[in-house]
Amino acid sequence: MDSVVRVVTLAACAYVVQAAEPGMVLIPAGEFLRGRSHPWSDYDEVKWYPNAARDEEPARRISLDAFYIDETEVTNERYAAFVQATGHRPPYYWREGKLPEGKEKYPVVNVTWDDAKEFCAWAGKRLPTEAEWERAARGPAEGKMYPWGDRDPTNKDARYNKLDGPGPVCASAKNEFGLCDMIGNVWEWCSDWYGQHYYKVAPDRNPPGPEKGLYRVLRGGSWFDIPKLFLTSSYRSWARQGERSPTIGFRCAK
Fold this sequence. Notes:
The structure is a single chain. The protein is an alpha+beta fold. The protein has a single domain, classed as paralog of FGE (formylglycine-generating enzyme) (Alpha-Beta Complex), CATH 3.90.1580. About 15% of the residues lie in helices and about 20% in strands. The strands form 4 sheets. A 4-stranded mixed beta sheet has the order 9-8-7-10. It has a two-stranded antiparallel ribbon with strand order 1-2. A hairpin with a 2-residue loop joins strand 1 and strand 2 (about 15-20). The longest helix is centred in the first third of the chain and has 11 residues, at about 75-85.
């Protein structure tokens, strides 16, 4: 099988981003600054939610082994192949269990954490850890609010603050790693249990998330969300493992 290769240039060097298979991108091993390190007065002064964004702190340098991650969120088309091959239940918005016509390239939504996990296993993959997700979303940038920097997002950067649902994958600009829709379009399930204070006690290398919990981690924000509250690279959200929502989808890693 042919590989797909891109070269990403950083300040004084370049490294190769090579696909393990079509549709995946290699995120190189290394350290990065995880968590919120940028000042954010608007968020710090939210009186009705005194703990806003505190679970993004402290920002710490951690290291990750290399991993692959899907270039796009899993689409209805890819999920339909899984449903057909395994007999897994389709999302309830698929009338008579059939893929919605014209929505083949849109991200699948209304899937639980277990649905996402089973799809990834069927595809020979797994859900990304929360740390992997943030590394992939940030790209080479350190300490920035968004993958593209600290400026406010535009509709070219991400799909957000909409009322009519997600858009087709890769309709917005890719980040520096060549990944689509890491910010906006749909929230993405991660493998981790959610822990409010986990960043304080997490290991410095390949943190796997807490051993148990009540909720699973969601990252990236969605088509429905406003950017400064939910769409930053460091923002952490969560949902019960069995929750389904038109704002929640996923992508796989390996």
